[in-house]
Amino acid sequence: MTSKKEKLSTEPYKGVRDFYPEDQAFFNYLLATYRSVAERFGYVEYHASILEPSDLYKSKGAENEEMVNEQTYTFVDRGQREVTLRPEMTPTVARMVAARRRELGFPLRLFSIPNVFRYERPQRGRLREHWQLNVDLFGSKSLAADAESIAVAADIMRAFGATEDDFEIRIGSRTFLNNFLKEKGLDEERGRKFITLLDRRSKISAGDFHTQMHELGIDAPSFDQLPVPSDVAEVIELVRSLGIHNVRFDSSIVRGFAYYTGVVFEVFDTHPDNNRALFGGGRYDNLTALFDDEPITGVGFGMGDVTMRDFLEVRGLLPAYLPPTKLYIAVASVENVPDALTIAQELRAQGVAVAVDFGDKKLADQIKAATKHRVPYLLIVGQNEVTSNTFAVRDLTSGSETKLSRKDLASFFLSL
Amino acid sequence: MTSKKEKLSTEPYKGVRDFYPEDQAFFNYLLATYRSVAERFGYVEYHASILEPSDLYKSKGAENEEMVNEQTYTFVDRGQREVTLRPEMTPTVARMVAARRRELGFPLRLFSIPNVFRYERPQRGRLREHWQLNVDLFGSKSLAADAESIAVAADIMRAFGATEDDFEIRIGSRTFLNNFLKEKGLDEERGRKFITLLDRRSKISAGDFHTQMHELGIDAPSFDQLPVPSDVAEVIELVRSLGIHNVRFDSSIVRGFAYYTGVVFEVFDTHPDNNRALFGGGRYDNLTALFDDEPITGVGFGMGDVTMRDFLEVRGLLPAYLPPTKLYIAVASVENVPDALTIAQELRAQGVAVAVDFGDKKLADQIKAATKHRVPYLLIVGQNEVTSNTFAVRDLTSGSETKLSRKDLASFFLSL
Asked: Which residues of B touch A51 (CB under 8 A)?
């Protein structure tokens, strides 16, 4: 090898992210928050490989065939199998539930936090890979299941520190929309146009919306004033009984075409600069029908890590970074390394997270390293400290020092 | 859509696994154990996408070009970029460290628990996808760093409940082997054969090993009796000072060709039926040189989830499965669902994980569902219970019941 060899780029692959310790710490906070709320509602975690047979995404008709070909990472393996990096988790969980429907008890509550891939132009909030909480309840037709799903979503928002003023839950109904289409006598094509128009409503002007509704023979103001349908009314009442009040009927909520068959909802950011849907979900009734003839009803939602991070950032709700390491031990000279190791190991045995510097650099540079790592406390091991058995613990933020005997070190850190 | 449509298989893609709740619970236990030990030693977590530019794996010469072409998932994306699903994490972490070498402090301690992919025939313990703890320390030439790496490995084994009798740490040295090759006057090709032979030692018979060593002009018994080299002796002494005693020099430990340049180690299962290396690691000195001209020394190890699970299973160290859900609320009739929801929400507010049945099925079947979910306690909400404000909490394992007033429910579960 020659030193003149061309050097490799340190950039990650286009549209995906590296998670350095600060990014990963936020990600772990996200996971822990998702997990704790989902588990409180009786959901249990599952997971699967990102690799799925491509057929899993093609089976829903021509529209999906196009999606698989153009918007996913799909390739042929050496065994001539067509493989896709999952673009969403719902088909996977439907596959897993169908595979063990006899052993699994229903209602079945499942959650997962998978990464999903979309082949698209990277842009803010639309990377090629993101992580997505998926919360699903299978096997109950009760509207209480729809209400619970919304309650889990709301409790996650609160667990992140959002108040009821920060977001609003808008509930719609596919049943209501289907009835409305029938009443208005819209054919299948015009019905599809209507649903697509509703789904795009927040992205177009009020004027355009009215015009396009008019072209479909619908008066937009009257549509917006339609009474709350009975399924939505019942869900809203149950959600309120669960202590969640920032919820209302919105006749325009449709959640696109895919899957949904009943009550649907979206969680909206109420921030004036970002009044958009953060995430949503709803009821779907026939996903497992791809695998066998007995469909299992499901209700659930998904939320992405990038959207959530943006929301928390704008609201000032991002937690400050603190490494798990509590103490950095620097050494006056390499001769002190064995003592530093022993002291560190004593502290670890009592549950204190400790990093040791092995003295490759001089003391001032060791302290700089501790600061770069954002470790809150520093202790220097030198001959004097070892002989006197007394150590000065330095708070690296304030600069203040506390003198402690060796046996008192652990309790100092454990009481922080 | 016709109901006679061909149904999709519920199998996952070949060679990868679905993680149902019990599998995921074990996986989470694995992650939590890895994390807690690594963090105690001052390591911080990072992560990256599974997608990497293929060049990352090709740059180490012809041998690797073959590996990339034949043993990885590599494909060309729509932008004509060659992409690989990472087969290992070390090149990724080297890339990330090189990208921010000015901002990161050294010594730098990093860990990650990524999934990695190999395109190979599925067999026991050798799936196409597995998860692998990676623990690396960058920027210290001190042998204390080598010792620390081994101590982290040993402490992970102990954290899983393994005793010093269950495993043995064997330490070798690439420096020692290189010196030995020079002394014996072996040329490059014979040197390579020698290293390969040592690496395959545990897979061939003692007789074959002796014969093949003899062909290289080396007397196997003398080789095995060589004195402990000074780097290994110092590492062993430091490791012992950290309270780890099941460690010894083994002149045959080489860890294959890739990366390693100094002290290397392997953790062996001492079980008579499975006396093999579980995992290992060592020092590598020039990985970041792919990206720039200033190499950063590293020392680290990787351990796979499948090997670890097999080890724990054989040793009877697998934890019993318990779902996070503590209580299952069944309802005498659908009229009781609103009360069940309110009681559940009260308990959740106090930190109890509760699942509610919405009464889609009769009571006996609701109880069966609770049992299938392995939830330990059951409570039935009916009109009598609501009126009397008294609930019978049933232990689903023993069948015993405890009568409690509504206000005492939370403390019952929190004191378990």
From this structure: 13, 16, 117, 128-129
